[in-house]
Specification:
Elements: E1 10-12, E2 20-22, E3 31-39, E4 47-55
Antiparallel strand pairs: 1-2, 3-4
């Protein structure tokens, strides 16, 4: 059985190099997967993706 936790996460300063994520209280015991996208402003517009996995403990 696969259980999914679906919620909107508040991301502060999403355009900066360092961000803050506010995780809801009901996410305790869940594993969150966040995919980050970074693009440059060069002539070829390169984009990179990185997954961040957060294990929320109660």
């Amino acid at each position: 059985m696969i259980d999914f936790f679906t919620a909107k996460l508040a991301i502060d300063h999403e355009k900066n190099a360092i961000i803050s994520i506010r995780i809801p209280i009901d996410a305790a015991g869940q594993t969150l997967h966040i995919v980050c996208e970074v693009s440059d402003q060069g002539p070829f517009n390169l984009t990179s993706y990185q997954r961040v996995i957060i294990v929320v403990t109660p």
